[in-house]
Amino acid sequence: MRTTDFHYDLPPELIASRPLDDRASSRMMLIDRASGEISHHHFSDFPDLLPPDHLLVLNDTKVIPARLFSNDGKIELVRTDAPDLDHWWCLVRPGKKMRDGHTVQVGESTGTVVKTNTKGERLIHWDTPPDLEEHGHLALPHYMDREPDKADRDRYQTVYAKEEGAIAAPTAGLHFTPELLSKIDHTFLTLHVGVGTFRPVKAEDPRDHEMHSERYVLSEQAAAKMEAAQKIAAVGTTVTRVLEHLVRDRKIAACHGETDIFIYPPYQFKAISALQTNFHLPCSTLMMLVSAFATRDLIMEAYARAVEERYRFYSYGDCMLIV
Length: 323
Known about the structure:
By secondary structure, this protein is α/β, with parallel strands linked by helices. It has two domains: 3-63 and 141-322, QueA-like (3-Layer(aba) Sandwich); 67-131, QueA-like (Thrombin, subunit H, Beta Barrel). The chain contains eight helices and 17 strands. The protein has helices spanning 46-49, 132-135, 152-155, 178-181, 220-228, 237-246, 285-294, 296-308; strands at residues 27-31, 38-42, 54-59, 61-63, 67-69, 76-84, 87-93, 103-106, 109-116, 122-126, 163-166, 186-191, 214-218, 231-235, 255-259, 274-278, 319-322. Strands 2-1-17-16-14-3-12-13-15 form a nine-stranded mixed beta sheet. A six-stranded antiparallel beta sheet has the order 5-6-7-10-9-8, with no helix packed on it. A two-stranded parallel ribbon has the order 4-11. Strand 6 (76-84) and strand 7 (87-93) form a beta hairpin. It starts with 26 loop residues before the first strand and ends with a strand.
């Protein structure tokens, strides 16, 4: 297995840099793993296409405006974690201006670099934490090739977002509306999507890739509902990773923690039997996960069809339902 086995060619014009006016009007490809059949639909058909007896599990994390700029505009920071109110781990650019002991001003707040970890993140101590709502910006994915605008504050967020902490949206859920959800038996878990989801796989052999870690929470109510369910359909790769991380002897229990599970072919899924997800970047860990679920050959065929049919790709793009 090589990382390049998960490459495909994508015309740049198929990258969706902005959302559709109506969330549920996205197109949706249906992939049947048993028959290998691929068919084309709209997301509004989702309740009718989801196989019966499935509990839908979604990620209710809420995206925060985690990207900040210094008052002089020379330093960019992206908050990746906050051990407490006054200490933030941040990605910074340029790094040479933010060595240990250096300071930065954001609004009325002054931050001092305490230390740097092996990933290049800076632990910053703030005299007063910056107000993210006033000074923060959404950290949109680089492939959108634009700065966020006012509309993104609403649209780069699921309609059920609740628990603040994500840097990136769990994009498979962006298609849902309250009306659609009301027709489907569902529950939620929380996984705060970090910048690691965009990190490329640089190793020639993906098994040498160091997978990023992300925090999750599963409530007692949600765990009980999942245990009682006959089958589980995951909305997105974030939900998939949490459930596959948690399943032990086919039992899911309430808990919280971090997962760095890396799913790639071959892998025997124990928790989920259906997956709804967006179209992912070539050679990414997410591309490998869906290839493990539906086989690499079927996924590569599906992506080739999606390009032919002019589907919209990535965060604001269309999606697929794999059953």
